[in-house]
Amino acid sequence: MSANDSTDDVQQPMTQLDYAERRLEDRDSGTQTAASLLSALACGLGVLAIWFAPMVIGFFAIGFSILGLVMAGDRDRFGKIGMIVAVSGWLIGAILAVILGRNPLSVGLA
Q1: Could you tell me which of 26, 30, 10 has the C-alpha nearest to residue 71?
Q2: Which helix (H) or strand (E) holds 21?
Q3: What are the pLDDT digits (tens) for 55-69?
Q4: d(Cα 53, Cα 48) in Å, to the nearest integer?
């Protein structure tokens, strides 16, 4: 084995494009991003539905969470979390509205 044979095994340095193709994860598609945003909106509305108009805000939260869950499918766990938070917020908000004697359809700030 000669000294010239060992230089053929040296790898060329990676370019930035090679690094991006080999090391970085694939980007999410637009559908996955939209599903995550809808699920996040459902989580936020579900939390708001605990105190403010649970029958209105809660139903919108459940609707957005259903859309996010359908778009995400089984690939994303965040859609299921959005559904749980939206339904829980709606249910807890409705129970609190009945117990406290508030109108569950109006936005009561007091």
Answers
A1: 30
A2: helix 16-23
A3: 889 999 999 999 998
A4: 8
Q: What is the pLDDT of residues 20-42, one digit of tens each?
A: 777 767 766 778 888 889 999 99
Integer Cα distance of 12 and 30 in angstroms: 35
Tens-place pLDDT, residues 64-93: 999 998 988 777 788 889 999 999 999 999
Which of 93, 37, 92, 91 has the alpha carbon at shortest distance from 64?
Answer: 37
Rounded Cα distance between 29 and 26, Å, is: 9
| Residue 38 CB coordination number (10 Å) | 23
